[in-house]
Amino acid sequence: MSATAVHSLWTTAATAADPIGRIDAPKIEYGQLAPTLIIIGAAVVGILVEAFVPRRARYYAQMFLSVVALIAAFAAVVALAAGGYGTTKAGIAAMGAIAVDGPALFLQGTILLVALVGLFTFAERRLDPEAHGSRVDSFAAQAAAVPGSESEQKAVKAGFTTTEVFPLLLFAVAGMLVFPAANDLLTLFVALEVLSLPLYLLCALARRKRLMSQEAAVKYFLLGAFASAFTLFGIALLYGYAGSMSYGTIAQVVDGTVPTVTPALADTMGNDALLLVGSALLVMGLLFKVGAVPFHMWTPDVYQGAPTPVTGFMAAATKVAAFGALLRILYVVLPGLRWDWRPVMWAVAIVTMLAGAIVAITQTDIKRLLAYSSIAHAGFILAGVIATTPEGISSVLFYLAAYSFVTIGAFAVVTLVRDAGGEATHLSKWAGLGRRSPLVAAVFAVFLLAFAGIPLTSGFSGKFAVFKAAAEGGAAPLVVIGVISSAIAAFFYIRVIVLMFFSEPRPEGPTVAVPSPLTMTAIGVGVAVTVVLGVAPQYFLDLAGQAGVFVR
Amino acid sequence: MSFPLLTVTAALPAVGAIATAAVPAARRTAAKWLALLVSLATLALAVTVLVRFDPGGDRYQLTESHSWIADFGVRYELGVDGIAVALIALTALLIPFIILAGWHDADPLETGSSRWRPTQGFFALILAVEAMVIISFEATDVFLFYIFFEAMLIPLYFLIGGFGDRAHQHGEKTAATQRSYAAVKFLLYNLAGGLIMLAAVIGLYVVAGNFSLTEIAQARASGELDMATSTERWLFLGFFFAFAVKAPLFPLHTWLPNAMGESTAPVAVLITAVVDKVGTFAMLRFCLQLFPEASKWATPVVLVLAVVSIIYGALLAVGQRDIKRLIAYASISHFGFIIMGIFAMTSQGQSGATLYMVNHGISTAVLMLIAGFLISRRGSRLIADFGGVQKVAPVLAGTFLIGGLATLSLPGLAPFVSEFLVLVGTFTRYPVIGIIATLGIVLAALYTLVLYQRTMTGPVKPEVSAMPDLRVRELVVVAPLVALLIFLGVFPKPVTDIVNPAVEQTMSDVHKKDPQPEVEAAK
């Protein structure tokens, strides 16, 4: 097949007996796709709400809609799991585009719960002082108004609020639901964009420090666009290599179990250079989303600049979704290549753990500190990813669930500590917080201890799970380095606790705002999950263990 | 199912801690009484454990076993041997005295908001430490032990960093800085040790497949579980490192003088007399049982480090100008003796070491608590600020002397018996080490007596001329402990009876027999 083969791409399609008759209507398993469909539907309705519902009622309408959608989607996930998806059977829905298996459902459930908790912090309206008689949230009065301009003042005076954040959140969640479940590379890419674009927007919407927020959004967007381009380029090369976008087919080509060569790609197919470069680019894009070194540069700036509720949501949910996608790529698409990617991931994990922990020591802003801490945690999770065993998968799933609730709780606490300029994120302002408001400081200390991986917190269970999986997977040196960087990381978590409890409060220090039940719920859920997963993790370990098998 | 005595013994102070912390801010005194009552009730339970324990019976008694985290192979397994029983009794005994001695140490200052409740926090944290220490003595599951071994750092950290001496020779601001430095140093040292141990704990799981001390030890003994020599050594080092930090052994000891110097005297007693014992106890229970071959392999190095601890700690104690730091270095020297006794691998050495843990707890408590009373009266920790105290406060000086004499192992007081046993046990196997270690006793006489001489004798310094003698509360703290020191010095049999069978078993774990006397061997 040389000269004719090239044309066969078109000719075979044309000479097929009855082209129109052969185009089957795609078969969509609505039941299996219900979680995603519910969220996307609600997001679309949310946009209509923005267009047609009076301004006064929008907040409540959007809140109601989002909460109902998230709960309904979670119920759908639970129903699917109860129906045996993930444990006894698994499905590939929407013509091979979406996998419905254990890891997908577990991660989707986690993302939905995190989003629900995150939504509560989005909707908080008691923290900022009332602006001209109307309660406001953390988001800009009018996103389109130039910071400091007259139109912005008008918008503030009129009491505008950006209720668009709710549908934006739902769109991001929809992308996140698909991201770890995507079963072909195009779906993966679409999901990546669907989850990223709303986040870029949300980052720019801070009510206070708007320029910083916009700067963060631009940085995130530019670097994110680069990462997306890498991903897309990688996808193209992988298609050239395997002649298919489908995970399963690519894996078969990698394994060498597919002898039939697509004629059009005869020259490139099976070319290892394409495979290696393509998968490297693809994984790079995912590592960017995960925040692993050396693709972590955006994390501190974006975490610091974005409105804190968005930071919390992004830090928790994006990480879950991106690690889910990374796991699926590495375990489903590229298991045949593991002797090539494992050394690379080893290096990435080591650098990520150490760099995150070491650089965090020098931080003076609480949000930047948490950003570097999230980088270090990405390294710990990568240690579990490298295990390439079912235990590795389930340990990563468990870690993600544990970590995301700690993160969202910690950022929710950050929203409470305020001074005249909004949130007081500089660490020096946190001095003596334990004397002023022992309860808030104690709750934050619980989260910090969980980050540090002190026993009886979820952080310890998670760390133990991934390190155990890594050790069993033959990565003992990685465990030792992980343990060392945990010790380094413990230093800066402890430093914050020292600051809160043992330093004298500053006379002009920040006050702790009394939040509405919304933020209280978010923090309460965070603490509860942290303690429960620390003291009695067995049920959730079981859950993650059952969910530890990918469909192919 | 029988009554879970061990769980209740550990859980009671934990519940008491929560209850104490919940007492409203205005009811400070109620919180103190509540904490004291809980600690006394815990003591009663510990005595029950002591009585129910049969020295001639099974190795681990009063056992409890429940499934906990099956995925990690972790079980909630408790059980006590003679060594653990003795140390639980010591812990439960000392806590009421610590609480009583610290009765006013955490009264809130004038400044501070109405919601700030340091008193409740102080006593709740002490009870929390007690609960965690007791459960780490009871745990026969390595993972369970590890969790509480690590978790106990948190309340201790707050005790060191949050509460210091009322009066400080350098003013409150410096004191706060030094306190916070001491607390962070304490935490980082111990956390680093603990995390290294975590790597070894994970390694042990990968090798053994579960965490049960009894199962692993049995499998090791019967040869079912074969460990590569290098694996065993690495795991041993991981465990030993954590315990050596906690104990503390030279050169990992530097956190102790800071921590003991900056914390209040009762907390210093809590650290050195109670918490550090977990380190030496764990060497006996985990290092020797799980890794017998590696323990023997490491013995020479450990013994040398122990001797260095003994001599170096004593020398530094001689040079101290600060009373509390002096006692801290003296403790480092004593921990050297304990570790030497453990790794001498003779039955005298190990029962001496166990006895030493108990006696050192009591004698240091006496010395340190009285030093605390002294320091709070004068508002300074410097030896040079005192002089002639015995003329104005004879009872204080007298009991301080008894505590000091106990520290230098005067015959007739409890520590003598244990120090003698340790030295004899070491000498029979390692004569040179034994001889060098004996120098530690000479130095102990030097630092204790010089301390006494400088603070208590000589002309009365004007600042101490109005110093009141021990008050009733302080006498209640000191008198029973002094009586116990004398009693155990004359009649140590009750403790040795409990300890000895457990020591014999540990000895058989490491396949060591006592060396025979040469005369007999020559026959």
From TrEMBL, chain B:
<feature type="transmembrane region" description="Helical">
    <location>
        <begin position="143"/>
        <end position="165"/>
    </location>
</feature>
<keyword id="KW-0560">Oxidoreductase</keyword>
<feature type="transmembrane region" description="Helical">
    <location>
        <begin position="297"/>
        <end position="319"/>
    </location>
</feature>
<dbReference type="InterPro" id="IPR001750">
    <property type="entry name" value="ND/Mrp_TM"/>
</dbReference>
<feature type="transmembrane region" description="Helical">
    <location>
        <begin position="430"/>
        <end position="452"/>
    </location>
</feature>
<dbReference type="Pfam" id="PF00361">
    <property type="entry name" value="Proton_antipo_M"/>
</dbReference>
<keyword id="KW-0812">Transmembrane</keyword>
<feature type="transmembrane region" description="Helical">
    <location>
        <begin position="121"/>
        <end position="137"/>
    </location>
</feature>
<feature type="transmembrane region" description="Helical">
    <location>
        <begin position="357"/>
        <end position="375"/>
    </location>
</feature>
<feature type="transmembrane region" description="Helical">
    <location>
        <begin position="267"/>
        <end position="291"/>
    </location>
</feature>
<feature type="transmembrane region" description="Helical">
    <location>
        <begin position="326"/>
        <end position="345"/>
    </location>
</feature>
<feature type="transmembrane region" description="Helical">
    <location>
        <begin position="234"/>
        <end position="255"/>
    </location>
</feature>
<protein>
    <submittedName>
        <fullName>NADH-quinone oxidoreductase subunit M</fullName>
        <ecNumber>1.6.5.11</ecNumber>
    </submittedName>
</protein>
<dbReference type="InterPro" id="IPR003918">
    <property type="entry name" value="NADH_UbQ_OxRdtase"/>
</dbReference>
<feature type="transmembrane region" description="Helical">
    <location>
        <begin position="186"/>
        <end position="208"/>
    </location>
</feature>
<feature type="transmembrane region" description="Helical">
    <location>
        <begin position="82"/>
        <end position="101"/>
    </location>
</feature>
<feature type="transmembrane region" description="Helical">
    <location>
        <begin position="472"/>
        <end position="491"/>
    </location>
</feature>
<keyword id="KW-1133">Transmembrane helix</keyword>
<comment type="similarity">
    <text>Belongs to the complex I subunit 4 family.</text>
</comment>
<feature type="transmembrane region" description="Helical">
    <location>
        <begin position="395"/>
        <end position="418"/>
    </location>
</feature>
<dbReference type="InterPro" id="IPR010227">
    <property type="entry name" value="NADH_Q_OxRdtase_chainM/4"/>
</dbReference>
<dbReference type="GO" id="GO:0016491">
    <property type="term" value="F:oxidoreductase activity"/>
</dbReference>
<feature type="domain" description="NADH:quinone oxidoreductase/Mrp antiporter transmembrane">
    <location>
        <begin position="139"/>
        <end position="442"/>
    </location>
</feature>
<feature type="transmembrane region" description="Helical">
    <location>
        <begin position="33"/>
        <end position="53"/>
    </location>
</feature>
<feature type="transmembrane region" description="Helical">
    <location>
        <begin position="6"/>
        <end position="26"/>
    </location>
</feature>
<keyword id="KW-0472">Membrane</keyword>
